[in-house]
Amino acid sequence: MARHTPSWPRHGASWFVVIPDHDAGPAVAAALRTPAARTVAHPSGRPWLVGHWSDEELTVAAAGTTGLAVLGRCPIGAERLAVEAARLREPARLDRLAAAQPGSFHLAASIDGRTLVQGTASGLRLVFHARVGGLVVACDRADVLAAATGAGLDVRTLATRLLWPVPHPLIHRPLWQGVSAVPPGHRLAVEPDGTTARHRRWWAPPEPVRPLAGAADDIRQALDTAVGVRTEGGGTVSLDLSGGLDSTSLCFLAAARQEARVVAATWPGRDPADDDLLWARRAAAHLEGAEHVIWPAEESPLVYEDLLTVDDPLDEPTIGVMDRARVLAHLPRLAARGSRLHLTGIGGDHVAWCSEASYHRLLRTRPLLAIERLRGFRALFHWPYGPMVRALADRRPYRGWLAGCLPDLRAPAAPAVTDALGWGSPPRLAPWITPDAARLAAGLIAESLPGAEPLAPDRGRHADLHAIHDSCRIIRQWDHMSARAGLPLSHPFLDDRVIEVCLSVRPEDRVTPWRYKPLLTTAMRGVVPQECLRRTSKAEASLDAADGLRRHAADLRELWSDSRLAALGLVDPALLKDLCEHPDAPELRGAVLYSTIGCEVWLRTLESPGRPMPLEPPRETEGGS
């Protein structure tokens, strides 16, 4: 199997490691410490946190033998944190602390020699761990641990990242041998011996039982608080104002708080049918005190732009590289206008809406309501009757569904209704994926089956959580990219407290064929002008993607001419080059090429300047981590 020792994150990227309170800790810290690294000590005096972070990103406090650290965006101050540290005697208290705080952050605790660390339930902030110098060391980045241990690339896991989509529970499996991931909503607990480590659940999704009418005020308050976490520092903050309900809601909440100067930014699409600009202008007319900036549509980068020059330090492949140029292009301009932080509406589609798969359960608990709604969805989405009935009749548990996907990895994509009403989209492999890669991916899926428990008992709630986790994989890498570009991104809709209150609403109130995003339009009454809440359309960038594919076909051909995936035996470069000669081919109308490009670009980012990564095909006798 290919082995590669990654370098430490470059370009000033932030990261931190958490070291157990152990006699071997100082030696481990010395091995992990870079010349510019910062260090925080356990109450015992031994090294606890080592890494790179800004002053705004860390709040730390201690009381006796207990230490607490918050890394990220959270309003809790050092004095309050010290009070919590004095009260902290068992992990249950840590659960209550995490559940009470708004924002998005990692939480680390040192309690009488025991070390605890957790990220977010959303998956936007992850925790990884590996053995370094004999101790279990945690980190917010998998590549840092891989660099510290000299870990080799896990080609089997890379093969699964060529699937479209990657199924649960494989989406958080690290790409490095010997590096493990803590599932979102779980924490890592390392005992005082420094070697005994366990994962423990600290978060579970709420039961979706609240009527929307009773939850609307709480949803508005949670979103307002999430925005306040970002604006309370004053100065200037910028926000997307696409004209959609999600970004528009955040703009009005930020402007109403009057804690920071607000710059609302609109970048129209190139499609003449795109009505985002119209709706953005309507919203901006009501945004008192905010500056509205409209970028020229013709200056918007296209999908597939600059793929050959991506060199961001990323710790996993991401389809986010496809839109990297579009996401980052306006950030320097906003920073020049004084913005210290850019808020996006990303996540609104995931928490203010929900999967139609919820009607699979509702058909059995509220059949009359479900039948009426399902008829509406069928008319709205043009679902064929036969596949719809089969999807509703399918009562396989998640493990059975995933096992049933194995023989069909090469099959054509399933009908949209199968995806919408099932456990999710069945994973597929494109024709250019080699038989060796297919065998590796199928083998890893089969190995995962014994532990393949759904994220929630019913397929609707599972699909919602999986969508959140999957999107956070992309956004997490965009966050690394944007920080390097000089203006960090932030996403209030993906704060755990916002996710919780939205998921607590009954699914029949969250998704209906008769109303668009009823959760948000109800919660934002009195905050967003009524005329802005009437929007029911949503722009989509298919024209920009098609234009980008035609314009940047030469770059794609160059990718496959010297393909790192081909060197590993995972793709057929001839098929890929031929495909790029026909950018209007029907098989490229979807996003099926994205995962392959994401993996190819990521492998290239791992290469040190002037020293290509030593690649070799995986051998049958070797396994992954």
Automatic annotation (TrEMBL):
Signal peptide: none annotated. Pathway: Amino-acid biosynthesis; L-asparagine biosynthesis; L-asparagine from L-aspartate (L-Gln route): step 1/1. It catalyses: L-aspartate + L-glutamine + ATP + H2O = L-asparagine + L-glutamate + AMP + diphosphate + H(+). Residues 219-604 form the Asparagine synthetase domain. Keywords: Amino-acid biosynthesis, Asparagine biosynthesis. It is an enzyme of class 6 (ligase). It comes from the Bacteria. The keyword Amino-acid biosynthesis applies. InterPro entries: Asn_synthase, ASN_synthetase/amidase, Rossmann-like_a/b/a_fold. Pfam families: Asn_synthase. The keyword Amino-acid biosynthesis applies. Its EC number is 6.3.5.4. Gene3D superfamilies: HUPs. Transmembrane segments: none annotated. This is asparagine synthase (glutamine-hydrolyzing). It comes from Nonomuraea composti.
